[in-house]
Amino acid sequence: MQHTINTSVSKGYKQEVKFLPDVYDEKGEPVFIRHPDNFPIQCKRDWKAVFRSHVEVPEQTELGLCFESPKYIKPGSIIELSIPLRGDIQKFRAHVVLVLQNDHGYEIGCLMHSQEEAYRARIVEQICHIESYLQNRHQARTAANENNAAQEWINRNASAFPV
């Protein structure tokens, strides 16, 4: 999906950009790791951070996540991300820096609040991508097996089936 859209960034200005599948820095390195669309993620505003913001300035790393959201999240918001993974819930604090409107809602880009969280998020996202890949392969294999089973049933039983 490549189209021109308005974006809002936390610096308070709007610009038109082409929607790209990934966002890169000046060295060509990805800034955001795209969370798989078929893997659950929950996002909620960190209201405690709103009240601490005059005291606490987040470190904010140069690596973040981007994910689809049906709801608009204001750039500059501090959010808590929750990703269920293998029976545990991984939580991260992040700062929303980019919001792109698309056909499904919004693409939210956020930067992690610490290097430790960025490192952990990278590992969690790798596991999410592996799980997503395995899930897609399993579904494709199951569909192929269902087609084979259906064809096998037709070959064996269709002639005897009442019309």
Short description:
With 163 residues, this protein is an alpha+beta fold.
Order of helices and strands: EEEEHEEEEH
The helix fraction, in percent, is 25-40%
Assembly type of the shown chains?
single chain
Described by strand count, sense and barrel closure, the largest sheet is: 8 strands, mixed
Radius of gyration: 21 Å
DSSP helix count?
2
Task: Provide structural commentary.
By secondary structure, the protein is of the alpha+beta class. The chain has helices at 47-52, 115-157, and strands at residues 4-9, 14-18, 32-34, 42-45, 64-69, 78-85, 88-102, 105-112. Strands 1, 2, 3, 4, 5, 6, 7 and 8 form an 8-stranded mixed sheet that branches. A hairpin with a 2-residue loop joins strand 6 and strand 7. The N and C termini lie far apart (46 Å). Mean pLDDT is 75; it is low at 1-21.
What is this structure's SSE topology?
Elements (H helix, E strand, L loop, with lengths): L3 E6 L4 E5 L13 E3 L7 E4 L1 H6 L11 E6 L8 E8 L2 E15 L2 E8 L2 H43 L6
Parallel strand pairs: 3-5
Antiparallel strand pairs: 1-2, 1-7, 4-6, 5-8, 6-7, 7-8
Key words describing this protein structure:
163 residues, alpha+beta, eight-stranded mixed sheet, 8 strands, elongated
